[in-house]
Hints:
Blueprint: H1 4-25, H2 29-53, H3 59-87, H4 93-117, E1 122-124, H5 128-141, H6 145-160, E2 164-166, H7 168-172
Antiparallel strand pairs: 1-2
Helix pairs in contact: 1-2, 1-3, 2-3, 2-5, 3-4, 3-5, 4-6, 5-6
Amino acid sequence: MRWALPHLVTCGNLASGFLAVLFVASHDFLHAAAFVLVAAALDLLDGAIARGACEEGDRLSEFGKNLDSLADVVSFGAAPAFAAYAAVLHTLPVTGIAGCLAFFVCGALRLARFPLVGRPDHFLGLPIPPAGLFVAALAALGPPPLLVLAALAATSALMVSTLPFPTPASMLQKKPRIAANRRGG
């Protein structure tokens, strides 16, 4: 039963993404952003639980990785992109759709690349959860359309970039202190 817990948490992430989409459809962008935040918390939690529940090479862990990517593309790709369009970018129909589509596709590309280049100490490219949280928060705030387009372009480019971003685990580890090399005197 312990192997099922991370999958249930991932399904909670997926359900939160779906609820975010429903709130976007109702033009309730604040609650939509809140559900993207819930999805992010569940995404962090499912990874921590999965590392303790599944052994390396386990078929269930492969299933969990695939389920996690599907949940993430909904919660941090589709929901935020739809929110950005519905909240702000509908005023720029063609460029708004293009910007949201670029964000969604770059997020999916980022998720597809992750298992190929994943490292324990850093990610290559901006992970989709912080990008999705940022875009969902922007949609809730409702800034000018050109600012949202610029944010979509920047986050899209960062997701498919090869820039290193620290993992949550590496940010929590204490860095060794380097003692100053002082000469006596």
